Amino acid sequence: MSLRVFAQEPRLTIDTAALARNAQRYFDVSVNQRGPARLTGVTLELSSARLDATACFDVTARAVTADDVADAWAAERASRAGGMASLAERCPTVWEVQAQEPTSALALQQLAAVLASVALGPVLPSDELTLYGVRGALERAEALAPRR
Q1: Distance between CA atoms of 53 and 89, rounded to whole angstroms?
Q2: Do the Cβ atoms of 95 and 14 come closer than 8 Å?
Q3: How far apart are the C-alpha atoms of 4 and 107, rounded to whole Å?
């Protein structure tokens, strides 16, 4: 399971402290760095009351390419995600997210919401059928969450 998050941060870094703060403050999940940071990436561990276990993801920062922008525009046209491709086009960085092992779509969407809240850019899922922001990630997570 993977996705791309467009980031307004011009440096190829991932602010793990901001992710941890936003995760706890706004989303009632825990996101922590696991192991040492790599040059342009980090491993993040996500846990929440809705998950039975933790989920680990590798997140790598890189410069946006013309292909990324083209994918964003195609996804916007496919889903009528008005304005999201323009936002993606203004982002100089992409955070690529890859689950370390098979994990739940719920965990991926929870992490997508946290990442988008710090990156201030849209999320492009691996199927490239739509673009969405924090609210869209939260709606997807809610739809996937087990009912109590």
Answers
A1: 36
A2: yes
A3: 15
HEC letters along the chain: CEEEEEECCCCCCCCHHHHHHHHHHHHCEEEEECCCCECCEEEEEEEECCCCCCEEEEEEEEECCHHHHHHHHHHHHHHCCCCHHHHHHCCCEEEEEEECCCCCHHHHHHHHHHHHHHHCCCEEECCCCCCECHHHHHHHHHHHCCCC
132 forms beta bridges with 123
pTM: 0.93
pLDDT attached to residue 124: 97
Contact 105, 131 (CB under 8 A): no
Residues 107, 55: contact at Cβ < 8 Å?
yes
Give the model confidence (pLDDT) of 107-136 as tens digits: 999 999 999 999 999 999 999 999 999 999
What are 25-40's pLDDT values in tens digits? 999 899 999 988 888 8
Q: Is the pLDDT of residue 104 over 90?
A: no
